[in-house]
């Protein structure tokens, strides 16, 4: 049994493959701090790594790495609303291996550093009081 996931390009994946790809997304979203390789993730969900990478991109329009990065940045933004949390603590709680990598990734996505973002959020909070 095969399921079509993108009509215009007629890309087909079996129901099992589709289920595995969706499970991989759930595994990543459930714990953004884990550092699973694509190969280990593929093994965990029961699909080969090529089909996982290819299928994930076709199904969700982004790579596994970009999905993980966006999930981590989204969580970091939530945590940075707390003005007492240090940036390095936020980095570790979001699964970044070191604070410099976190700052670089955050700035690339948000166009400002995590510290600047945190300061802006605190200033917005003060204006609302």
UniProtKB/TrEMBL annotation:
Q: Where is the HTH araC/xylS-type domain?
A: 22-120
Provide the alphabetized UniProt keywords.
DNA-binding, Transcription, Transcription regulation
Family matches, as Pfam families: HTH_18 (PF12833)
Top-level taxonomic group: Bacteria
Q: Which InterPro entries match?
A: Homeodomain-like_sf (IPR009057), HTH_AraC (IPR018060), HTH_AraC-typ_CS (IPR018062), PchR_regulatory_protein (IPR053142)
Q: Name one GO molecular function term.
A: DNA-binding transcription factor activity
What residue stretch is flagged as signal peptide?
A: none
Specify whether Cell division is a keyword of the entry: no
Whether Transcription counts among this entry's keywords is yes
Q: Which PANTHER family match?
A: REGULATORY PROTEIN PCHR
Q: What is this protein called?
A: AraC family transcriptional regulator
Q: Which organism is it from?
A: Lacibacter luteus
